[in-house]
Amino acid sequence: MIVSTKGRYALRVMVNFAQRDSAEYVPLKEIAESEEISQKYLESIMAVLSKAGFVDAVHGKGGGYRLNRKPEEYTVGSILKLTEGSLAAVSCSSQGPAACSRTQCCQAKPMWDKLDKMIDDFFEGITIADLLSAYEG
Amino acid sequence: MIVSTKGRYALRVMVNFAQRDSAEYVPLKEIAESEEISQKYLESIMAVLSKAGFVDAVHGKGGGYRLNRKPEEYTVGSILKLTEGSLAAVSCSSQGPAACSRTQCCQAKPMWDKLDKMIDDFFEGITIADLLSAYEG
DNA sequence: GGTTTACCTAGTAAGTCTGTAGGTAATATA
DNA sequence: TATATTACCTACAGACTTACTAGGTAAACC
Asked: Does residue B56 approach strand C to less than 7 Å at its CB?
């Protein structure tokens, strides 16, 4: 599996926002109920989206969250990379602690690299606006 | 991440076999040392490959494992699906306990389906023979 | 001051990943 | 027949991830 509930919930929430009046702030509670997602769990997801500047947030009554760009300006890739951390097909090809010592001689490396690029291109080619209009590829 | 060490080890082992005399049986110990994989962990992977008929196995001295087809007859997809269980991009689109109740109205479903097909086509289009000859796509 | 909202830290039960440990069964060789 | 060599089997375990829950604090509005 490449995309967990965290990324999928983030996408659903962004689509939900996109379906509403773009000027209106919607409280987390309302989104959570509308999407049947645990309110507390959704908090952690909204925190990520808010911190990254994907949504505006205001406190207090009448507050909540709203998109700050047009739906077509959010790629699915940008949302998934933000919430999932990485969309890499294998852990070994990345830099860092999981990096593989056989990278130099790995006969599968070009395959993983090509797959990573294919997946990235795929997700970067789809926007929230595409999902809104019942995306069919 | 979509492919864990289990699947990657399986691929490496299959490539290792393909580089040897196809008639010769190679003991697990030798493969494990050659690939620097834990012998005990590799046992569990070979058990899967053997049970599925991907390799022949014989007990006793002079025994071990060997391929029973030509390298070009093993797709990467068949090996990964066998060892990983599934290559699905999301858990919710599959049948079974993880199935999503929103399948009917899910606006992202066509996207996941298309991605799954893309990944499947990708892996089914590459064979062990391709990896042998330094696959470059 | 009180309500409504976002924001923050911490914990946790269940599952997965990556192995280990210790045996039994089959085959070849002496 | 005895012994070594190999595959095969069951069970466990520590670290990590996933998908939450619990309980607060801070900001904005009335």
From this structure: no
Q: How is residue B44 written in tokens?
A: 């569990």
Crossing angle, helix B109-124 and helix A109-124, to 10 degrees? 160
Q: Which residues, including other chains, have CB under 8 Å from residue A127's CB and lie 6 or more apart?
A: A71, A72, A73, A74, A75, A76
Give the separation between CA A14 and CA A74, rounded to whole angstroms.
9
pLDDT (tens digit, 0 to 9) for every residue of chain B, 137 residues total?
Answer: 899 999 999 999 999 999 999 999 999 999 999 999 999 999 999 999 999 999 999 999 999 999 999 999 999 999 999 999 999 999 877 665 566 777 767 889 999 999 999 999 999 999 999 999 876 66
Please name which of B66, B113, B122 lies closest in space to residue B94, comparing C-alpha atoms.
B113
Q: Give me the phi and psi of A57, to 5 degrees please.
A: -135, 140
Cα separation, B11 vs B118, in Å, equals 20
Residue B122 to residue B19: CA distance in whole angstroms: 23
For the segment(s) B5-86+127-136, the CATH number from 1.10.10.60, 3.20.20.70, 1.10.533.10, 1.10.10.10 is: 1.10.10.10
Strands (E), chain A: 55-58, 64-67
Which helix H or strand E contains A46, and what residues bound it? helix A39-51
- The pTM of this model reads 0.94
Is B110's CB within 8 Å of A134's CB? yes
- State the count of interchain CB pairs (< 8 A) between A and B: 83
Nearest chain B residue to A85 by CA distance is: B1
Residues B67 and B56: their CA atoms lie apart, in Å, by 6
